[in-house]
Amino acid sequence: MSDHYVRGEMDISTQENTWHGFMKVTQWASFILIITLGYAVFTITMGMHWMVALGLMAVLGIAGGLFMGMGSAWIVTVIGLAVFAVILQLIIMFASAVL
């Protein structure tokens, strides 16, 4: 059986695509985690205004995504997360004003 094996002849395109997909998901998740932790550090520990920290992290996320070649989907994701954060913060502000 082992005499039929020839190194380098097996089609590994499926394994390569799986690996590249895993690395892309890891890259995206890691970068989102870095942006989230950076926002938390700036707002909670340093006392920076939430809107300034959000803008800073959005700019950092977009610039980092462009530097790492993550494509336009990454930019749309960062902008969408920033808009979601503003809406969430407005809901928190309105709820705290009512209570």
Automatic annotation (TrEMBL):
Gene3D superfamilies: Bacterial aa3 type cytochrome c oxidase subunit IV
One Pfam family named in its UniProt record: COX4_pro_2
All residue ranges annotated as the Cytochrome c oxidase subunit IV bacterial aa3 type domain in the record: 7-36
UniProt entry keywords in alphabetical sequence: Membrane, Transmembrane, Transmembrane helix
Residues passing through the membrane, by range: 21-42, 74-98
Domain of life of the source: Bacteria
Protein name: Aa3-type cytochrome c oxidase subunit IV
